[in-house]
Amino acid sequence: MPEPEHLLDNNLAWAQEHLRQNAEFFKHLATLKNPKYMWIGCSDSRMPANEMIGVEPGLVFVHRNVANQVQHTDLNCLSAVQYAVDVLGVEHIIVTGHYDCGGVKAAMESQHFGIVDNWIRGIRDTYIDHADAMAACCDKEKRLDMLCELNVKRQVDKLSHTRIVQNAWAAGKDLSLHGWVYRLQDGLLHDLGVSKSCANDVEAIYRVASVPDSPED
Hints:
Blueprint: H1 4-21, H2 25-30, E1 37-42, H3 49-53, E2 60-65, H4 75-88, E3 92-98, H5 102-108, H6 116-119, H7 121-129, H8 131-136, H9 140-161, H10 163-170, E4 176-183, E5 188-191
Parallel strand pairs: 1-2, 1-3, 3-4
Antiparallel strand pairs: 4-5
C-alpha cells in the first residue's frame, strides 16, 4: 500500500500521462462547468462514479456517503443537491447503491456499531417496513441484495419529497430522479425502475402545496 507521499508521485505521473495523450486535456476539463448528472452514491472506494458510467469527470457532480443516504437532516447532502439543481442545472440525479453494501449489512445486524447506528437507522426502518418479504427470503445474501435495492428506492422517494426537487419541477425545470444498483462482482449497473420526473410521480401527501420564496429541504 503506497504511503501518502507516493500518491503525490502517482498524481504527477497521471497528469503527465494525460498531457502526453492530449496536451489540452486539463484546459478542456477546466471548461466543463455544467454537468448534466448528479450522482449520489456510497462512499465505498470501489465505486468511481464517472469511470463506471464512461463519462469525463466534469460531466458528473458527485456526492457520496455511507450507504448512499438522502437524509432530510443532512445539510451536506441537501446543499449539494440544491447547488446541483439550482446552480449547475443538472438534468438527472442518480441514486446509486451497490450489492453487498457494508452499511446496509450493518443495518441488518442486531449489533451496535457506534455513531453510524444513527446514520443507518433509516435502513433498519426500511427492513421493518418490508419485514414479511424479508422473512420469506431464506437466503441471507439474497435478503441483503433485496435490502440494498429497497434502500436505493427509498432514497429516490425521499429525494422526490424535498422542496429542492419539487420547486424545480414547479419551475418547469427538466429534472429526473433515478435509482440504480451496482454489482461489484461484474461491474454492471442495474436500473431499478423507480425514476421520477414530475410532481405527479410523488405520493400526494408529500407534494408541496406552494412554492416558497427560498428553497428549504
